[in-house]
Design goal:
two-stranded antiparallel ribbon; mainly alpha; about 240 residues; single chain; 5 helices
């Protein structure tokens, strides 16, 4: 049979080859059910990514970016805090004591204000220890050892600069102040727990007096060194140091 119909509207029967209309469900010649062979448009292919177009921002990416910024901010704040704390004494302080010429007289000149300052602090602690006031004793002890914490760096620097016979007495003076710091810390702990200078803190207060005696003896040694070096101790050991030789 000659096929005269438009090829877009007819097809051949897969069973007998007869020309069948595209919309026909059965072949008019053999009755075979026709399979829909009409071509359908294939699904569109995904468009290629445009390299010049920025990626889309999703909520997940926004969350991750926010966390990153927050952690960076916290890190910067912590670093700044550590730098400020280091500059304000959170760590070894930088001593402002001058270098000096190494002589005992020069070192005593710079040590004299520290020794006088300690006398004031010790008098305060001893005065509170004479009363039955644990809170006042705790406060005085804390104030005194905080003072040593500040001035101990300068004393250490002074001792390090001494040469000759005066070096050893100054080294021992540093040890005396270190022990005072420990005893004062113990006094504060005892007083905070309710102890007083008339009770459980009495031994620690007595040790502070004994340490004062050691410091006086070392200062007397320094006076002998000054004489040997040609200096008059009276020009360097001040009355505020309260030294008895």
């Amino acid at each position: 049979m000659t096929m005269t119909a438009d090829v877009t509207t007819v097809r051949s029967c897969p069973a007998c080859g007869e020309v069948v209309e595209v919309e026909a469900n059965f072949c008019p010649a053999c009755g075979t059910r026709q399979v829909d062979a009409t071509l359908r448009n294939p699904p569109p292919e995904p468009a290629a990514a445009d390299p010049t177009r920025p990626p889309s921002v999703t909520p997940a990416w926004v969350f991750v970016a926010g966390l990153t910024v927050m952690f960076l901010f916290v890190a910067v704040v912590l670093l700044a805090f550590r730098l400020v704390a280091a500059g304000e004494g959170d760590g070894p302080a930088t001593s402002t004591a001058p270098t000096g010429d190494g002589s005992a007289a020069d070192a005593v000149d710079r040590y004299a204000p520290i020794a006088a300052g300690w006398e004031t602090k010790h008098e305060h602690v001893a005065g509170q220890g004479d009363d039955d006031d644990s809170a006042g004793l705790a406060t005085a002890a804390h104030d005194a050892y905080a003072w040593i914490d500040v001035n101990g760096e300068d004393l250490t620097a002074i001792a390090a600069g001494v040469t000759g016979e005066g070096a050893e007495p100054f080294r021992q003076l540093v040890g005396v102040y270190s022990r005072r710091y420990t005893v004062l810390s113990d006094i504060e702990a005892v007083a905070t727990a309710g102890g007083t200078g008339l009770g459980s803190a009495a031994d620690e207060l007595a040790e502070l007096d004994a340490l004062d005696g050691q410091a006086d003896s070392l200062t007397c040694e320094l006076m002998s060194v000054m004489r040997a070096e040609g200096d008059d101790p009276a020009d360097h050991v001040t009355p505020e140091m309260n030294v008895t030789c």
